[in-house]
């Protein structure tokens, strides 16, 4: 299991950045997820997909963090200039714009975007991980896309 975590790090970082929206928070989340995964290694079943198990830990840890903050958006540390959640954007301006747009989404929509659009999970895989029906994933993703489009339209 430990050897399987190393190749998952880039994907886990992308997920954490999409969920948290802030680099410092994402880094803290990745560290927390790895600590929990290693501490609870005996709970992982070898017949289960390691990435889904780790992503579930990340999702639950982030929800715990949000509850602990009282759903406020306080930061562990200030955002570092120019470093955002969107690694794949082609210019710094697009990166900042995408990160700002993702930050406007409600947490449940951001989760679905992170899992389906960023990590490439299928709707059914995301639904299983989030413990919701596939229709809920579809609906949240549609609303998230509409919100992101509206955000894009404001900036044009």
What does this structure look like?
- About 13% of the residues have low confidence.
- The protein is mainly alpha-helical and 156 residues long.
- α1 packs across α5 and α2 crosses α3.
- The chain has a single domain, classed as Butyryl-CoA Dehydrogenase, subunit A, domain 3.
- Keywords: Sigma factor, Transcription, Transcription regulation.
Secondary structure topology:
Elements: H1 2-20, H2 23-39, H3 50-68, H4 92-104, H5 107-118, H6 123-130, H7 134-155
Helix pairs in contact: 1-2, 1-3, 1-5, 2-3, 4-7, 5-7, 6-7
Kindly report the CATH topology. Answer: Butyryl-CoA Dehydrogenase, subunit A, domain 3
What's the main sheet like?
none
User: What class do helices, strands and sheet pairing give?
Assistant: mainly alpha
Strand content: under 5%
Please provide the count of β strands. Answer: 0
Any idea what the radius of gyration is?
15 Å
Architecture per CATH nomenclature, i.e. the level-2 architecture: Up-down Bundle
Count of all domains: 1
Low-pLDDT residue spans:
71-90
Distance between the termini: 46 Å
